[in-house]
Amino acid sequence: MADSSFDIVSKVDHQEADNALNQARKEVEQRYDFKGTDSSIEWSGESILIKSNSEERAKAVLDVFQTKLIKRGISLKSLESGEPAASGREYRIVSTLKDGISQENAKKIGKLIRDEGPKAVKSQIQGDELRVQSKSRDDLQEVIRLLKAADLDVDLQFINYR
């Protein structure tokens, strides 16, 4: 019998992220507590730029955006935000969406599977994803349970289960 396998990936649905950003922008424009603060949120290339006239307002805009991401099913583990930085008379926060599993995190996940997973399971890094193989589908499901329970700093999805 052939080996069963699945891939571990960390992908962000960019259409959903764009929808969350547009919803956050509309809310910031309409909310009373943001009136007169020159607060805004927008795409700046691949990153997200948040601007406001105070550090607290900039953090509040980021909070609104995080809420919208959660409602759209995007994990906050895939959002990387900096601290508010003063730029002239405004504060800016630059955030990025992490796509793919870094080599460092892939090695951590591989080590976790080797150390705590079933012995017959093999994992290998393929670019920005991990392939996990085993003869037993039960072992693969055990690995999925193990990774879901682990507190990793990446949002994982399990695809191509066959």
TrEMBL record:
GO terms for cellular component: cytosol. Keywords: Nucleotide-binding. The keyword Nucleotide-binding applies. It comes from the Bacteria. SUPFAM superfamilies: YajQ-like. GO terms for molecular function: nucleotide binding. It holds the Pfam family YajQ. Belongs to the YajQ family. Nucleotide-binding protein. This is Nucleotide-binding protein FHX48_000406.
